[in-house]
Amino acid sequence: MEETIVNKVKANQKLITLDLAKLFYDKTPVKELDIKQFLFQELLLKEKDFRSHLKNYDWSQYQDAYLRVYCSTDAIIAPWAWMLLTSYASEHALDVFHMPADQLQHTLYRRNIEEHDWDLYKDKFVLLKGCGDIKVPDSIYLLVTNKLKPVARKIMYGEACSNVPVWTSR
Fold first, then answer.
1. Who's near 155: CB < 8 A, 6+ residues apart?
2. How far apart are CA 108 and CA 24, in angstroms?
3. What angle do CA 170, 161, 145 make, to 5 degrees?
4. Coil, strand, or helix at residue 82?
5. Distance between CA 53 and CA 77 in Å, rounded?
6. Contact call for residues 134 and 122 (beta carbons, < 8 A)
7. How far apart are CA 14 and CA 89, in angstroms?
8. Closest CA to 39 of 49, 31, 27, 28
9. Which residues pair with 113 in a beta bridge?
10. Which residues of 55-77 are buried (b: 16+ CB within 10 A; e: fewer)?
11. Residues 83-138: pLDDT tens digits?
């Protein structure tokens, strides 16, 4: 009769370290497009010219990447222009965004966080890793804290040898 060997250290482990960058960072390339090049004198939106530029533009360079579109000049861009641009870009890009770069990083992290199973941390001590090669936006630490509070026993920040207690269940 064989006896099952149980790793009691791992089975009873209460401390879980989460490296948010490793767990939630989206490695998909992000490319950017400044639409000022499609404007008359980089400032004025002329519909006919704008449509022509979009039609003749090489959108294939955004294949299998995220595309962040913006305008670096003070031009006033009508909402339909962003919509039209997206209709072309989305044929190649995985997704098209019109937002500041830091907000885009938050959005990409958030997508992965929303899909995560947070019940894995039920009654656990969770340490959110504080340092790493990839910068994690501060807003993501807030979001993850809100996800962990209903399930974790304790939330900490930093490294195992020197952490800052953030929240403890009562």
1. 126, 128, 145, 148, 149, 165, 166, 167, 168
2. 8
3. 40
4. helix
5. 15
6. no
7. 47
8. 49
9. none
10. eeeebeebeeebbbbbbeeebeb
11. 999 999 999 999 999 999 999 999 999 999 999 999 999 999 999 998 888 999 99
Structure-block tokens of residue 135 = 């910068």
pLDDT of amino acid 9:
45
Whole-angstrom distance, CA of residue 146 vs CA of residue 126:
13
Q: How many CB atoms lie within 10 A of CB 117?
A: 7
Check: CB of residue 157 under 8 Å from CB of residue 130. Answer: yes
Query: Phi first, then psi: what are they for 153, rounded to 5°?
Result: -85, -35
The CA distance from 94 to 131, in Å, is 30
pTM equals: 0.83
Q: Which two tokens stand for residue 145?
A: 């804290």
Which value, in Å, is the radius of gyration of the alpha carbons in the chain?
23
Q: What six digits make up the tokens of 143?
A: 């979001």
∠ CA 78-107-34, nearest 5°, is: 40
Amino acid at 13: Q
Residue 169 confidence (pLDDT)? 92
Distance CA(165)–CA(51), nearest Å, equals: 55
Antiparallel, parallel or unpaired: β 154-159 and 125-129? parallel
